[in-house]
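tool_call: predict_structure(chain=1)
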Amino acid sequence: MIHGTYFLHGRSFRKDGTVDSLWTKEVPAKYAPMPHHLAGRSYTATGYGKRLPSSTMVFFNGRWRRVYVCCYSNSGMAYIGDWVIGRGAEITVQEV
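tool_result:
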């Protein structure tokens, strides 16, 4: 079931590590809870972490991808893909 529309924000890097380009893409999203979501539990004991799976998936590059959240203190950032050390997420997710 399609859940709504999200925006993906990405960036490309040059070989020397500087940012080359920024892009935004509108993609469909769906509600796809994992077992810990259905049980009403947090993924970690504290609720904080660098790669917390959310109950949302987005359709990007021909397949459904899980949205993850990096959350410490009272702030979080949603992303897909890998967390690149020193640069953070390559593709961030924004709900409409």
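agent: The beta strands are 2-13, 19-31, 49-60, 63-72, 75-84, 88-95. Proceeding to next step.
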